[in-house]
Amino acid sequence: MNLKSSLLSGLVLVALACPAPGQELADNWHQWRGPNANGVSDTADPPISWSEDGNIKWKVSIDGQGTSTPIVWGNNVFVLTAIKTGDKDSSIPDANDQPKTNFFDIKRPNETRAFVVICLDRTTGKEIWRDTATTKIPHEGAHKDNDFASASPTTDGQRLYCWFGSAGLFCYSLDGQKIWQRDLGEIRVGSSLGEGCSPVLHDGKLVILRDHSGNGAIEVFDAKSGQTLWRKERDEDNAWATPLIVKHSGKTQVITAASDFVRSYDLNTGQIIWQCSGLTGNVTPCPVVDGDQVICMSGYQGYSAISIPLTETGDITASSQIRWKIAKGTPYIPSPLLYDGLLYFNQSNQSILRCLDSKTGETVFGPQRIGDLSNIYASPVGAAGRIYITGRGGTTLVLNRSKQFVSLATNQLKERFDASPAIAGKQLFLRGAKYLYCIQESSGSERQQE
């Protein structure tokens, strides 16, 4: 893969960034899967119940397409989208005129997309700024349930990092000034399913992982300048699992989950610390860390979950060092939720829930069919002793965080939700196909809407 760069003038710890003065990282949702990269906020307390007519602080239309989770920093909410411009390349046939080239009959677009970064006011939902990072015609299509803005942004409270896959990597100031950008080249995802792995930030280093049907790679950048610090090729097929960064055993480990191996890289050098096989195909759930072990899952072409110690070196596949393994009921797309020793996850993309003891892998409850939810793409989140699970049909189930299945509320919105929720303070953010909702206990004021 050709690497091109264009520099403009000018991640536990688990992927922890340095918060800006006066702001605590725990109070924000600065990255995919939140402050601790496990889906939990230790400080948030969002509502239990809501509807289209109740506890909606604001609801704004987000033009274009995007399934990335919004992130929250201070009074800013950042969201990415890809917007059709109407400009077409006549040399590329319309989709109906292209031959079938893959199983899903995914065609190459011939219309330019604007890849857009939007900053909203957290209190009102009003747009503070937006910038078109770049415009281009995607070099290949994406699955109908994916899009061209599916990676969540991340921030260290000083700069904002936005990854649009083959359309480029972009760094902004929090007030919308583009600082640098990198073109990392185009990749070919098997069956044209689309890209989607989110960037991870730690100690001034930004990690980008690209596993696909060609020659994949993991690349680490200086977050301030955008310069490459190291890059390692990877021989993995399609995978979309966002890396996990954890400091353990004297090293900062970048843990990547994929079908051939789960690997731990030294963040500073790029050297492999340990590796372990055992997952199935198309790995999408991101790893979670619990003390001195990391838990990885996959749920396509079989089920697998494996708990791996962070203390080992070398290839530990099938060794006695593996803490526990299961081969049933694991998720395909959603990531698991690790909440104070309890590990929650759904089966495949179905509304069937399991809860395990994260230390032992023993079943706490489940399989449990969970109410009126349709298929699930969004990952569950947790706060204030509660768990929030959102289905594609607009239903969110709220549960007690407990060793029994205890439902507290079922909430319905008139939207399709593929993006995972974000939570901060008294608010829950749900990004749908058309709208971004800010859910907060009503104070009697009228809902604000754009």
TrEMBL record:
Coiled coil: which residue ranges? none
Family annotation (InterPro entries): PQQ_b-propeller_rpt (IPR018391), PQQ_rpt_dom (IPR002372), Quinoprotein_ADH-like_sf (IPR011047), WD40/YVTN_repeat-like_dom_sf (IPR015943)
Per the database record, which ranges form the Pyrrolo-quinoline quinone repeat domain? 116-364
Q: Which PROSITE patterns match?
A: PROKAR_LIPOPROTEIN
Keyword terms: Signal
Give the signal peptide, or none. 1-26
* Domain of life where this protein originates: Bacteria
What is the name attached to this protein's record? Outer membrane biogenesis protein BamB
